[in-house]
């Protein structure tokens, strides 16, 4: 019987056309809920530390910051620019560095110069608001001793020098 059935020609056309409604289903709410289950929030703003003692040389600064929350952070964006007393200080070149740690040593800076720093935290969800801005100062360059003006006698010595810095230096330490 199977052999006879298989020999028959079968007509696969449908006698009536299916009449389906075109339905548009909005899954946006479900998609938002699904995304919110696994999504991590963007981090909070980091807190930049004030300049630590011995954190500067004439051409470098070590900047540190931290988080006061348990945010998931993949990296940081450290921004800085020189501080200027001129009206056009906003036009000063801003520099941005991508950093993995909560500290960074910036090099190739000018001696005895103030720099303004701020930092943001980054993760897969986005970037945090920037931290408060902190001002750090590089160390002055060493003074230049005027060897032709040095005078001495049995109980005294006169040593003259000049600062190689544009900005005034607060004080000098003379070692004998």
From TrEMBL:
Pfam families: fn3. SUPFAM superfamilies: Fibronectin type III. It comes from the Eukaryota. InterPro entries: E3_ligase_FN3/SPRY, FN3_dom, FN3_sf, Ig-like_fold. Residues 46-142 form the Fibronectin type-III domain. This is FSD2 protein.
């Amino acid at each position: 019987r199977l052999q006879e059935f298989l020999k028959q020609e079968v007509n696969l056309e449908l006698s009536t056309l299916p009449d389906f409604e075109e339905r548009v289903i909005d899954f946006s709410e479900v998609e938002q809920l699904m995304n919110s289950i696994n999504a991590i929030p963007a981090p909070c703003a980091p807190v930049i530390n004030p300049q630590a003692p011995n954190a500067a040389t004439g051409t470098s600064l070590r900047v540190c910051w931290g988080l006061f929350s348990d945010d998931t952070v993949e990296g940081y964006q450290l921004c800085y620019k020189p501080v200027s007393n001129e009206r056009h200080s906003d036009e000063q070149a801003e520099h941005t560095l991508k950093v993995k740690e909560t500290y960074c040593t910036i090099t190739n800076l000018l001696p005895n110069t103030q720099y303004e720093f701020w930092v943001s935290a980054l993760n897969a969800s986005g970037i945090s608001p920037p931290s408060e801005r902190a001002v750090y100062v590089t160390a002055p360059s060493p003074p230049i001793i005027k060897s032709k003006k040095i005078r001495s006698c049995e109980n005294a010595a006169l040593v003259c020098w000049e600062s190689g810095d544009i900005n005034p230096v607060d004080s000098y330490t003379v070692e004998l």
